[in-house]
Specification:
Blueprint lengths: L6 E9 L3 H11 L3 E3 L17 H17 L12 H6 L7 E2 L5 H43 L16 E9 L3 H8 L4 E7 L4 E9 L3 H10 L3 E2 L9 H55 L2 E3 L2 E9 L3 H11 L3 E6 L18 H7 L10 H16 L2 H16 L6 H23 L7 H4 L14 H29 L3 H23 L3 H25 L1 H6 L2 H12 L2 H26 L3 H37 L21 E2 L4
Length: about 650
């Protein structure tokens, strides 16, 4: 706690033919992060193809093609409501698979595809054929609608006459008439819509090339019709009947394909996941340094996993060489108590601490929950949040680690909201006093505004003091005593001196003023040494900035008053409706009461979360925390659709 977990950099040299087996085992165990190995320039490096990469990617492409083509034919299960998904989700179904090498995975996928693919592709080909027939017939029907009710073979070109049928822009008709008025041409026109028209152009063979050139210039689009000894009406009737039959056949084939997919979809998902895992292994293999018959694997291993890491290597290969050392550039693996771990989400939102840098999460866990509870500040709102969090923990939290973490975070926020709701005498606002029930409490933010503001400033002083002490300690720990004094000491003197001058008397007030003067001198001298006289003088304005940071915490009281004020208004309107409107007033009053308090809880809950973030990210972290670290990401095969004996 307060520091990241110890990670060791391991460098292992082993036989090339054991590399894949080792990567598979490490991938399943998730006990290390594979690092790109440094190339050994002294040795003659020979380039090896990685773990059947070509075969894996070709197989992946084949599988993705089948999945993409059949996505619309999968069984659509009724979606669970959002509430059901959170508190009582359907457990994910997993299929047991063997732990295989990439080569065996490819062979297995190809074997199963050879059984599945023909069934699917046969149906897909038939579906495309039927769709093509329907589209073609629809196109012909649309074209035939433009023709007069004569036999369509009348519009077919002959040895002496060239006939063109097509579509042009309505605005081009005058241009067409002008260009062919001197030609021996017959033109028929029928409007298709406001922008386009069907045209029929007949001319002699000798003039056909000139007419075709004119038609090309005006954007003529030729259309196709069936030339038969039958009227368009009769042909359209026949095509419509053919489409009806074809669509029935199409629906039957699609139903058959959906039946196939009902049986095969889960198998395809498992195969897809196996191929994805193979790709992850390939990426890891590419991080190795390959030297003739040997490979070098470098990894970051947490101290708690080091023995298991060594034993895993020992099981895979009898002969190997390993170096283990701790390095400053290691990634960061949080090392907090399970009750504090959910607040790592907040720290990550800002920035991950560097390796062995101070981790603010334990401090943040307390102060963030207090700030949130202070601003939302209602006993029953906290109970609602706690109840929702418990349901989420027992529901989605069982299957989703991220949701599990968030639900625990929400539990803490709910607990502190209830505790501070009791402190501020807020039980659904002022509802209970309105109905004659007095409940315990210490401070009413609506009637004791000044006391609430003073309390928020006391919290500000304590919070900033903790941040400055941490920053001072971190600089001193690194041997940067001047920076500790100039970056944190000056504000500690100013803070302590300001408090002593305000509340102290006699000697304490004098000491307080002395500390303020000392803070000003340190500020001037430190910045003079760092940046010269101009910056040193201007740095005095940082004092007003620090005071702004202190008074920024008054937002705690502002939001607490806002929550209490809205709750008061909701209670007033609900009870007024009950008193003034007979019978139905009770129903409307209950609706206003429930809806109003839900609105208040949600909106001010969001506000409390955002402002708690702001106070930590801008006011608190700026006093000591840098961040800039890289989060430790274990090399781990996340299996959502399948599991192995190793799981």
């Amino acid at each position: 706690m307060f520091r990241s977990a110890t990670l060791f950099h391991t460098r292992t040299i082993l036989s090339k033919d054991k590399a894949e087996d080792l990567i598979i085992k490490l991938h399943e165990h998730g006990i290390s992060e594979i690092k790109e190995a440094e190339q050994t320039k002294e040795l003659n490096v020979e380039v090896y193809e990685t773990l059947d990469e070509k075969a894996v990617k070709e197989t992946q492409n084949q599988l993705n093609e089948i999945i993409t083509k059949t996505i619309n034919y999968r069984e659509i299960k009724p979606p669970e409501s959002m509430i059901t998904q959170l508190i009582n989700p359907t457990p994910p179904e997993k299929i047991k698979v063997d732990l295989l090498s990439n080569e065996k995975i490819v062979n297995e996928v190809q074997e199963k595809l050879s059984l599945i693919k023909p069934k699917i592709e046969e149906k897909l080909i038939l579906i495309e054929e039927k769709k093509s027939i329907v589209e073609k017939n629809d196109y012909l029907i649309e074209n035939l609608e433009a023709l007069p009710n004569d036999f369509t073979n009348f519009f077919e070109s002959t040895e002496n006459i060239n006939i063109q049928i097509g579509i042009v822009n309505v605005n081009s008709l005058d241009q067409l008439k002008e260009k062919v008025k001197q030609q021996n041409v017959i033109i028929g026109i029928k409007e298709k819509n406001e922008l386009q028209a069907f045209i029929f152009v007949a001319t002699t063979i000798s003039h056909s090339q000139e007419i075709e050139k004119v038609l090309h210039e005006i954007g003529f689009e030729s259309i196709t019709i069936p030339f038969e000894k039958a009227t368009p009406e009769k042909i359209m009737k026949k095509l419509t009947q053919e489409n009806k039959t074809t669509k029935q056949e199409l629906r039957a084939i699609e139903a058959e394909l959906k039946g196939v997919m009902k049986e095969q979809a889960s198998k395809l998902d498992v195969l897809e996941e196996e191929i994805d895992i193979s790709i992850q292994r390939i990426i890891a293999y590419e991080q190795l340094n390959k030297m003739n018959s040997l490979v070098t694997l470098e990894a970051w291993v947490p101290e708690e996993n080091l023995e298991k890491f060594k034993s895993t290597i020992k099981k895979v290969c009898k002969e190997y060489y390993m170096e283990v050392e701790e390095k400053e550039e290691a990634p960061t693996k949080f090392d907090n108590h399970p009750l504090i771990q959910p607040f790592e989400i907040i720290t990550e939102l800002y920035s991950v601490p560097k390796y062995k840098q101070f981790d603010p999460t334990p401090v943040l866990a307390i102060s963030f929950a207090v700030f949130f509870g202070y601003m939302l500040t209602d006993f029953f709102y906290g109970l609602v949040l706690l109840g929702i969090a418990v349901l989420m923990y027992k529901g989605m939290g069982k299957y989703n680690p991220g949701m599990k973490k968030f639900s625990v975070l929400l539990m803490w926020l709910g607990i502190f909201t209830s505790l501070l709701g009791v402190f501020f005498k807020s039980y659904l606002g002022d509802f209970f006093p309105r109905i004659g029930i007095e409940l315990p409490g210490v401070l009413d933010p609506l009637s004791q505004v000044m006391e609430a503001i003073i309390l928020s400033l006391v919290i500000a002083a304590v919070h900033l003091f903790i941040g400055l002490v941490i920053g001072y300690y971190e600089n001193a720990r690194k041997g940067k005593m001047i920076d500790a004094l100039g970056q944190q000491g000056v504000w500690l003197f100013l803070l302590i001196g300001g408090i002593a001058a305000l509340i102290g008397e006699g000697i304490f007030s004098t000491i307080g003023l002395g500390l303020i003067g000392l803070a000003v001198i340190i500020q001037l001298v430190y910045n003079y040494i760092q940046s010269g006289p101009i910056i040193s003088t201007l740095s005095l304005f940082n004092i007003s900035g620090f005071l702004g940071d202190v008074f920024s915490y008054a937002r705690l009281t502002a939001l607490a008053i806002g929550t209490a004020g809205i709750a008061l208004a909701v209670n007033f309107m609900a009870l007024m409706m009950v008193d003034m409107v007979p019978v139905v007033g009770i129903i409307f009053g209950i609706m206003i009461f429930i809806g109003g308090h839900i609105f208040n809880m949600v909106m001010n809950g969001l506000g409390a979360f955002i402002h708690a973030l702001r106070l930590h990210f801008l006011e608190f972290f700026s006093k000591f925390y840098e961040g800039g670290g890289k989060l430790y990401k274990p090399f781990y095969a996340l299996r959502k659709n399948n599991y192995t004996e190793d799981d």
